[in-house]
Amino acid sequence: MSAIENRVTVHPASETAGANVINVASGKGGVGKTWLAITLSQALARAGRKVLLFDGDLGLANVDIQLGLDVQYDLGSVIAGQAALSQAITTFDDGGFDIVAGKSGSGMLADLDKTRMRQLQSQLWQLAQHYDRVVVDLGAGVEAGIRALTPRGGTTLVVVTDEPTSLTDAYAYIKITLKQNPKAKIRVVVNMASDRRHGERTYATLAKACQTFLKASPPLAGVIRRDERVPEAIRRQIAFLARHPSSDTAKDILTMAGKLG
Questions:
Q1: CATH code for the structural domain at 3-260
Q2: Using an 8 Å Cβ cutoff, are 167 and 28 in contact?
Q3: Each residue of 68-127: pLDDT tens digit?
Q4: For the range 192-195, what are the long-range contacts, defined as Cβ-Cβ under 8 Å and sequence gap of 24 or more?
Q5: What is the rounded distance in angstroms from the CA atom of residue 29 to the CA atom of residue 27?
Q6: Cα(21)–Cα(1) distance, rounded to whole angstroms?
Q7: Three-state SS for 137?
Q8: What is the number of other CB atoms lying within 10 angstroms of the CB of residue 17?
Q9: 130 by DSSP, 3-state: which?
Q10: 141: phi > 0 → left, psi -120 to 50 → alpha, else beta; which?
Q11: Who contacts 123 (Cβ-Cβ below 8 Å, separation ≥6)?
Q12: How sure is the predictor about 140, in pLDDT bands with cuts at 50, 70 and 90?
C-alpha cells in the first residue's frame, strides 16, 4: 500500500478525473489570485470539505511563502525525482487543508516538456481522488504551459479586477480556453471591488465582451470586496479567515465557497 493510500481514503465523488478540481486563474498578475486560492481553500475546509491546495503557478510559486510554511518537499522535488507527489503533501493545520507547494523562483517547472507535463497532470488527478475539492493555483497568463494542468471536467475561476489590462487579459484567457475546450466550465470572480455593485459592473463589462465576440457568458462566481487588511495578513503570513473571520471580505469568500460546494 502506498503512502497516500495509508493517509487518506479515495472519495467516491472524485472518480471522474478532474471533476472535483477548481482552477484559480487570471490573465495577468496582481489581481490577488494566489491569495484567493488560499482563502477559498480555507473556506471550503471550514465547510467540512477535505481540501488540497496545489500550487501550479509554474516558476513563480508562493503559496508556502504567503503562509509562512517550511516544507520538506515541493513540486520542484517531485520534478527532480527526489520525491513522489504524495510525499510533497504538507498539512496546513491552521487552515485545515493540505498543500502541495510549488518551487518558488525556479523556471524549471515552466519549462517542462509536454510528456512530463502530462505525467504530472495524471499524478495530480490520481491524487485528486482522495479529496472532496482540489484547488489549483495556476500561473497568471495565457500561455499553453499555464493551462496544461487544467482538466476538462474541472471548474476554472478567472480572477479579474476593474483595471482595463486585467479585463482585457481575462477576456484573452477565456477566449483561448473556450477555443481549446468549448465546454469548459468557466466562472468569473471579481476581486478587490469597492462594493458589490462596483464588482457587478466590472463583471458586466467582461461578460458583454464575451457575449459579443465569443457568444458565451461565463457566470459570475462571486464579488470579493476590497479590504486593506488583506496585504497586512499576507505580510504576517497568516491565513485571512483566521485573522479577520467576520470581515466583509471573509463573508464574500465564504458565500462563494458555499456556492461552489
A1: 3.40.50.300
A2: no
A3: 998 999 888 888 889 999 999 999 999 999 999 987 655 555 567 778 777 888 888 889
A4: 192/31, 192/32, 192/161, 192/162, 192/224, 192/225, 192/226, 193/161, 193/162, 193/223, 193/224, 193/225, 193/226, 194/225, 194/226, 195/225
A5: 7
A6: 25
A7: strand
A8: 18
A9: coil
A10: left
A11: 78, 85
A12: confident
Give me the residue label for grid cell 472535483.
Answer: 20
- Angle of helix 196-214 relative to helix 164-180, nearest 10 degrees? 40
List Cα–Cα distances, 157 to 102, 137, 201, 213, 247, in angstroms: 20, 10, 18, 20, 22
End-to-end CA distance of the chain: 31
Is 14 within 8 Å of 125 (Cβ atoms)? no
Q: What is the DSSP string of 150-215?
A: --TTSEEEEEE-SSHHHHHHHHHHHHHHHHH-TT-EEEEEEEEESSHHHHHHHHHHHHHHHHHHHS
DSSP string of 202-239, one letter each residue: HHHHHHHHHHHHHS--PPEEEEEE--THHHHHHHTT--
Distance CA 125, CA 249 (A): 31
pLDDT (mean) for 128-150: 80
C-alpha cell at 116: 512530463
